[in-house]
Amino acid sequence: MSKTTSTTETDRTDTERVGTTTGETDEHVRDEWRDYSFDAPTKIGVEDLDVYYGDDHALDGVSMDIPEQSVTALIGPSGCGKSTFLRCLNRMNDRVSSARIDGSVTLDGQEVYQEGVNLVELRKRVGMVFQSPNPFPKSIRENISYGPEKHGDIDTGLLARVLGRSDEAAREDLVEQCLRDAALWDEVADRLDDNALGLSGGQQQRLCIARCLSVHPEVILMDEPASALDPIATAKIEDLIAELSQEYTVVIVTHNMQQAARISEQTAVFLTGGELVEYGDTDQIFEDPESDRVEDYITGKFG
Amino acid sequence: MAGAAETRLVSGDTSRSNAVAAAAVALAAVLFVTSLAALFEVITISDPFAGVPVVTVLGGTLSLLGVAVITFGVGSYVGAVETEPSRSAGLVAAVVFGVVWFAVGGAVTSRVLGIGGVAWAFVALLTGAVASAVTAVPREDIGSTLPAGAVTLLAGMTFLTGSVGPAWVWELEFEQQASLTAEFAIPVVTLFCALLAGWAAAKAYGGFGARGRKMGAYLLIYLNAGSIVSVLFILIAFTAFRGIPGLLNGTEFGLGTGPTVFGFALPVSIPFVMHGVSLFNDFQGVLPAIAGTIWLVVGAVLFAVPLGVGAAIFLTEYAERGRFTQVVEVATNGLWSTPSIVFGLFGFAFLIPRFGGGKSLLSGMLTLGFMLLPLVLITSREAMLAVPDEYRDASAALGVSKWQTIRSVVVPAALPGVVTGVILGVGRIAGETAPILLTMTGGTFVPGERTVDVIGGFEFVSTPPFVANPELLRATTALPFQLYALITAGVGLGDNVSSPTEFQWATALVLLLVVLSFYAIGIGARYYFRRKLDYE
Known about the structure:
Low-confidence stretches of chain B: 1-8
Distance between the termini of chain B: 47 Å
Protein name (chain A): Phosphate ABC transporter ATP-binding protein
Largest sheet of chain B: 2 strands, antiparallel
CATH architecture of the largest domain in chain B: Orthogonal Bundle
Organism (chain A): Halobellus salinus
CATH superfamily of the largest domain in chain B: MetI-like
Helix content of chain A: 25-40%
Low-confidence stretches of chain A: 1-31
GO molecular function (chain A): ATP binding; ATP hydrolysis activity; phosphate transmembrane transporter activity
Oligomer: heterodimer
Largest interface: A-B, 33 and 24 residues
InterPro entries (chain A): AAA+_ATPase, ABC_transporter-like_ATP-bd, ABC_transporter-like_CS, P-loop_NTPase, PstB-like
Number of helices of chain B: 18
Number of domains of chain A: 1
Keywords (chain A): ATP-binding, Cell membrane, Membrane, Nucleotide-binding, Transport
Number of helices of chain A: 12
CATH superfamily of chain A: P-loop containing nucleotide triphosphate hydrolases
Structural class of chain B: mainly alpha
Structural class of chain A: alpha/beta
């Protein structure tokens, strides 16, 4: 979406809103959602985030604070930049060579987009679960222990075994803990050596969540984690997300507005053009949104 | 047959006319196989079969088949059997039968009537045009059966009446004095007629129309696939039959008869694969060439696989996709199609002066390694590109570095593909003669005690590089080269080898076995790596 289109759209909305606004001149004032006050301390702070894919303006000056140990849902129509926003939080967009990112993202007050950021550490602290389940073509156990082994936290290699320093027991504990946290342990406890690709779609996605937990993240980003799953598997994932938010900060992109309403404390609505139109308590967004465009979107008139 | 009141969903597949059509299809298939066998001289056409010459049997069967096919068409046309023919047999069939009848018309006018010059071509064209018209204009049941049945019947009658018998020869009167013999012509004609008539019969079996066309296509595809597989088996069987006598020449069983391996005497002695050639041997063998071939392949693989896989990793994972990678791609494809003699010349001019100035095993290994490199690179690259990006994303999202991702996720997932490439490449290089002719081979016959022993050849020396291996720097021989030398140069026709022909076939068989065992190892490795990736 080009910048021109997004401006026209904003203009149109502004004219529509004349007379009903509460003194605002421009609906998407950049700092409006930045100053939103939550009870919990801010985990991730985003300020003036612009993302371009080549000439494509994917995110248009997004600013928002994400409070810790809660579920924040990002909703909006396809192509509105939700996933792009999510992938900026752990710098996964660095892997897209055409992407250009301006603005600031802070994690616990520390700037993520600056020289000398340790990407390994960042991605350990900000984990990610993808839209389609993507376990490695390895055994269930290896899927879980993959991250910690590569980081050197657990060593069960040949040399370690020869030297008697193998962390076999620690690995078993970790695998069990992660699988229990992801509500998968009871289903796979007796077949940890089976290939993960033999699991059902819902189980695979919970395995991916368990894999994400294995490196002890603080934030978990989820990109439509239930969109490829049937209703029962989706319900399990939703329960799991509620569970996880006790301990982790969860940011979840979803197309399903009922899902957002069910599981999230805060909701951010992105609309076409990569702008963040409204952000606030989920109840308020769904019951009494400030923006007409958000109301139109939520009630199905737009998007 | 289903009546008009019954549903057309289920037609009577078991009716008598269908059974006859199925029998005709089977007859065509038998004819096809028989003509293939005759072509490869498994069957001799002049030999009697149940008291009748094979050619007469072929002629009778063809005539029967031709009549049957015509009967199907006419029967369907007059409504004796219920079918669903299309309005026309179609353009492709018209062209095919036009060409077939053009050839038939030409052959008959020039060979039988003796008409030459332009008149010959005119008659041939006319026949072809009529056949095309007969195929295209009438309804499908007539169009696809009449031309096929008629040509089959014609061929059958020709064989049956003895117009073309086992002694028939067509002198082509080229400068090369080439001639078409009955040994070749009869199986080929039978083959084609069996295909055409079988196709028509299969269509009749399907009741023409869409279902008939499907049946016709099935028949052609199955015969095609079957003949490819059978050609492969015939080739292997042919070599095996001819090679086994030479291979087993002088074989002895019994304790202590074989050579000693690791201090343990083998209970079997096969001189052909356990000896070299020397004046004092009772039976000569090719052990040095076997060892040479195996070491060549091992050396080439050890050289090419790390380089090729490394380059593929760089190109897929690190290099920006752009002009550079395109150039590399074109260059590797070009290298893979470079004639092997060019690689040989490169080895001769570049490697040999740098490795002691004489032909050596090492030069041969490297030359073949250079040949193998492009294929390993191409296939490894394809395999790595086929690894889903989701795996890389998942790994990166865990904070795992790129190199560790490549090592632990990308390469394991790509390994089966890499192994496939190596298998293909090894098959090619193991049989190469030209490059090793220029870079590695010494005499045709290498005595048994000069069998190359790379592992035992390593020795420590007091000066840098401290390790030397004279075995690597010595000329030796390999199976394809030895075969080439035996056949073209006639080496060994003297008193060295008692029966040169047996010796040559046995060498070919051993080469085939060596290449096939490399295949087996490769396929085993691929199976192992793939099993680790798959569930169940």
